[in-house]
């Protein structure tokens, strides 16, 4: 049986440190970090996720602002709301709950978020920063995965990492962050031929396909590290846990693995954003002679 990579305790430490920093910022400047959440429509799962993030924000001393828009909201109306939040100095971070309804251009909506407030790491600016190793916010789930691997002393440099999935907010940035940590990265997806054979070459497997029990135990190389970034109905991940746990050296459970890390990084980056914006706001203007 493999060892579990549990994110709960590490996430709690991250949130506690974020709370300390939020309190220090408020004491020093009078500014409380504020995270605005935007929900379009009334999808029950999305509404639950938003409430959970708001509750965690409160525990971390981070203020929250909730914007709920009707399902028939147009792309233009959503973009206008995100521009409004981006221009509001009392809002330091913006989270657009995704997926949005199908008629909305999700990429246009993401790009309406000021990169300085993109604490969920969904803009092209954030992706470029991850790809080029420049300062910027990380996509929260991929960033949380890297923190979890580091906490469990998983050797990344020189390892072969196979990412299953290529979404712009999970699979693609996960590969970029692994590459930045000197892994050799293979992206796989729905058009990949001989997927099980490719996965069997991996030292690290990141499953992010959104299909329950998709990755089977006989796909894995003995001793591989398995990160299940999926969450499906019935608290089931993208990896067949029982089969994989008999082969892998380390594996994340669902729930309790990647999920807590995602929220913890979101809150940490919300405080980062508030600190950076507060510093900019109070920085004196220097007039050159």
From TrEMBL:
Domain spans labelled Tetrahydrofolate dehydrogenase/cyclohydrolase catalytic: 7-120
Gene3D superfamilies per the UniProt record, alphabetical: Leucine Dehydrogenase, chain A, domain 1, NAD(P)-binding Rossmann-like Domain
Domain Tetrahydrofolate dehydrogenase/cyclohydrolase NAD(P)-binding: 139-277
Recorded GO MF terms: methenyltetrahydrofolate cyclohydrolase activity; methylenetetrahydrofolate dehydrogenase (NADP+) activity
A GO cellular component entry from the record: cytosol
BP-aspect Gene Ontology terms: L-histidine biosynthetic process; methionine biosynthetic process; purine nucleotide biosynthetic process; tetrahydrofolate interconversion
Function (record text): Catalyzes the oxidation of 5,10-methylenetetrahydrofolate to 5,10-methenyltetrahydrofolate and then the hydrolysis of 5,10-methenyltetrahydrofolate to 10-formyltetrahydrofolate.
Catalysed reactions, semicolon-separated: (6R)-5,10-methenyltetrahydrofolate + H2O = (6R)-10-formyltetrahydrofolate + H(+); (6R)-5,10-methylene-5,6,7,8-tetrahydrofolate + NADP(+) = (6R)-5,10-methenyltetrahydrofolate + NADPH
UniProt keyword Amino-acid biosynthesis present: yes
Record's keyword terms, sorted: Amino-acid biosynthesis, Histidine biosynthesis, Hydrolase, Methionine biosynthesis, Multifunctional enzyme, NADP, One-carbon metabolism, Oxidoreductase, Purine biosynthesis
The EC number(s) this enzyme carries: 1.5.1.5, 3.5.4.9
Pfam families in UniProt: THF_DHG_CYH, THF_DHG_CYH_C
Recorded name of the encoding gene: folD
Highest taxon above the source species: Bacteria
Protein's name according to its UniProt entry: Bifunctional protein FolD
